[in-house]
Amino acid sequence: MKKYFLGLASVLFLLSCGHVPETHYFTIDYPLVPAENTNGHGILWVKKFDTDDLYSQDKFVYQISDYEVKFDNYRRWVSTPAELLTLQAVAHLRASGAFERVTMVPPRERNWLVLSCRIKKFQENFKGADHSAQVALWIRVTSEPQHKILWSELLQQKVRIEGHSENAILRAMSEAVQNVFSELVEKLRANIS
Fold it and tell me: What is the pTM of this model?
């Protein structure tokens, strides 16, 4: 009974203070320029990205010190970072022309490549003078069905956020993602023959 009254008191307090802040949902966006040279070879299966626990939900993550991380309950991604970045990676890789085909389902062909990724950072940094967007992805490419690792590396980008508006944050996050995926294409071309 005591819990009931505490819950009721909390609701009445919120109602008396005004309205609950509106939740806003955001996505990553940048122009995908189709490559002029689209003579890519091979098939690339992009597996759904995995994440460290910190990025497993759709809330914005921001770090305010070396030891403290916070979640924003009212600014959220349209989907989890794993889903959002997997789809963006596929779109970026398809536009790059680096492969004959980029797919999100296991191919039926005899040989293909698999791109796996673990999201290590996908956040806003707000530590002292450092106001930046940071993206770090641990990428691994294997040759299948042999399960041979062809290449793996941590790719990371940090972009300064100019201003404090949501648009400034999203521009910087989008640029950091674009830079990571552009670097990914370069590394794939250099390391996968």
Answer: 0.87
User: Rounded to whole angstroms, how far apart are CA atoms 97 and 135?
Assistant: 23
Alpha helices by DSSP H, listed for the chain, are 2-16, 81-96, 166-191
For the chain, the first-to-last Cα distance in angstroms comes to 69
Higher pLDDT, 147 or 168: 168
> How many C-beta neighbours within 10 Å does residue 121 have?
21
The answer to whether domain 25-191 has CATH 3.40.50.10610 is yes
- Helix 166-191 × helix 81-96 angle, to 10°: 50
* Digit-coded pLDDT (tens) for 138-167: 999 999 888 899 999 999 999 999 988 999
Name the residue ranges covered by the structural domains of the chain: 25-191
**φ, ψ dihedrals at 186, nearest 5°:** -60, -45
pLDDT for position 89: 98
